Amino acid sequence: MTTLNPSRGRGEPVEPPSITAALADRLRSPLAPYYLLATSTAILVAIGLVMVLSASSIGSYYDSGSSYTVFLNQVVFAGAGVVLCLIGSRLPIGVWKKLGLIGIVAAVGLQALVFTPLGIDWQGNRNWVRLGPFQLQPSEFGKIALVVFGAVVLARKRKVIHRIGHVIVPFVFPFALILIGLVLLGHDLGTALILVAITGGMMFTAGVQARWFIGAGALAGVGVAYLATSSANRMERIAAWIGDSCTNPHVQGCFQKVHAEYALADGGWWGLGLGESREKWGLLPEPHNDFILAIIGEELGLPGTLAVLLLFVVIGYACYRIVAGSPDTFVRIAAAGVMVWLLAQAMLNIGSVIGALPIIGVPLPLVSSGGSALVSALLGMGLLLALARSLPGARESLAAKPSVLRRTLAVLPTPRVGRR
Fold this sequence. Notes:
The chain is mostly helical. It contains 15 helices and five strands. A three-stranded antiparallel β-sheet has the order 3-4-5, with no helix packed on it. The chain has a two-stranded antiparallel sheet with strand order 1-2.
């Protein structure tokens, strides 16, 4: 359909804008990051709930007599996480800043509890705390606490960011180092790597000189190499990763690596169909947790896995828009911290599943089963939504849009008053 352009004369047709031009115009809107984050988060959580139900049904029935036990627990945590996400998205930036110091102190204190009688060991890691009927993984909430506290400190020191002493104290030392050290004492190298990545990404965004990252990167590399070589478990996983084939299924990491590849291979281009996974029948360990992407590939094929990857790309793009478009230093650094957290964790998880990296043992954000990981990730998304609302023009655009209630009432017939 064409339209008429009065400036060109009567009856002269004008072509409507193309789909590409309309999409580009939408993406230029100050509200684009907000809606991209909200939509991608909702879709990832929905995919996660569906796939947790599918991947956990067999193991859940074997353990509890019900195929829905793990799924219903995940629904409860998703509900709590969504509530926190909505609350966090409405908090003013000033309130988030005030929560920085409180959050990091609480995170360090909770992480220290894992070495008390409340702590729980699981598969060689001591990174959980039992609080009444619940089990909590403090390091997951340490990520969001580190982001907010680090953004507050680095934003306040933006004029002296070239002095490394101001960068280190008090962000890196004592809080970040203590938190990372406590996680490492619990033998959770994967989470420690995420915390290191968050710290480095926020410092880079704050403007710390590149030469400091060279030395810090070398020290971190030496530390990771030492931690890897000093653990027989980790060395077996690395050997299984770099080896041409896994002939011994009892080697750590070999069994999971092979069966994850089997799942992806069985899925082929279009997948076996939702609920039709074979590997979840006791073959692939942790199918609903660290290796849920393998079940997605097996049941939903390449379109399913690419959809998950695309959604994380969308989150990364929205975070970049916040970093590039905000005049507030705190907003830029905090958005970069959450972006590094989610994308680095997603890369480690996906790399482990497809065999590009050794099995590290981190969940896929917003998708994998796990209450603490899901709630903390949704809280992080709430922070991102609050940051997106603070972009120039975004709050005014949101205020100008009619609410759902007003739009609903607008289409209802107006009652006539005064007639009988």
